[in-house]
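User: Thanks for the earlier help. One more: Undecaprenyl-diphosphatase. Can you show the sequence and predicted structure together?

Assistant: Of course, both are below.
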Amino acid sequence: MVVNFIFILKAIIIGVVEGITEFLPVSSTGHMIIVGNLIGFKEGILPRTLYSKTYIDMFNMVIQLGAILAIIFLYWGKITDTFKDFWPTKPKSGFMFWFKIGVACIPAGVLGILFNDKIEEKLFYPMPVIAALIVGALWMIFAEKKYRRNFKTKSIDDITIRQAFVIGCFQCLALWPGMSRSASTIIGGWISGLSTVAAAEFSFFVAIPVMVGVTIISLSKHLVAVNAIQIIALAVGFIVSFIVALVVVDKFISFLKKRPMRVFAMYRIFVGVLLLILVFTNVVKF
């Protein structure tokens, strides 16, 4: 009974981490890998009937859908409007909106399909994540200083196909866990001429097909028979990530209208350096 309670509690913690970090430029996958290792929500922990690698991988994918569901809920009005005015009879039709979302998904989608197994094998570990947190933070600081104020596009409805493709290319950086899909999209948006808010909102919509696709691919590989406690943990993690993401996304957009992104970059550097110190002083062992 105690083991099961601890297992559910860990699932709640990971759900909170996912809900907070999925749309912030700090990398949700990276944080789930690090926090999962720190609290023992990983393969090899006893009992192995609960902590199998296949189940942990599946859990991390499924709860990400909880956060994506929060975006669908928050932007339901915008989503339904695109389908009410769908036919491509004018530049801002729903068809063109989703076509540009599709264009932005292509680069990372192609690379992800080709190299997903190799990426999981080599990069889904704490040390590569720590490196990505720091490298991504430095890249954010440079890009914000150089490109943030040079924008012409303030609304996601005004994004061009070319801008969508450029953003999609930058999303490829997020295949390295720890870099952050949100950060990569926003940086790509800055460089292609989007305001920070427009880039962030575009990243939300791009996340819908990207994460659904990634989840389907991952589940096809990691789907495994689960027991009752694992099902409960999965449901609880999903619900928690959904609720937390609802709150975080709204606060994040309000923050971006007033404050610079380097706050998140400094957080990434702090966490990365702190973890390196803990690892090299043997306080934490991954």
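User: Great, one quick takeaway?

Assistant: The radius of gyration is 19 Å.
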